[in-house]
Amino acid sequence: MSLFDSRPKFAVHVAQTDETFPCAGNESLLTGMVRLGRKGIPVGCVNGGCGVCKVRIVEGQIKALGPISRAHVTLDEENQGYTLACRVAPQTPVNLEVAGKLSKPFSKGRAESATASPSIQQQ
Ligand code: FES
After folding, report:
1. What CATH number corresponds to the domain at position 90?
2. Ligand 1 surroundings by CB, under 6 angstroms
3. Segment Disordered: which positions (predicted)?
């Protein structure tokens, strides 16, 4: 990347950490944050595969840079503003909340799949 990055940028605000960073309209919210060494959104695979960067867009417009896995963001959730920060770029200033697995109390590996299918039935 050029030393003089003249791409138009939008302010991205992370509610939990009250952190704001500028992000270009053609880079993902997560890439923009990491490029500046900022924190706030959990960083995982940066490729749409792990879901740890899940956020809810509270305000602002975004555009998808790639497919968003339904394993991590359901259609219902997408309609409520949830998305993956590594898969979307800002088109206006954005306010977001971190909403991924790491924001929940139980965040270890496979806990989710263990609870996904109720195998004990009461009779
Ligand atoms: S960092 Fe893994 S899905 Fe975004």
Report:
1. 3.10.20.30
2. 43-46, 48-53, 84, 86
3. 104-123
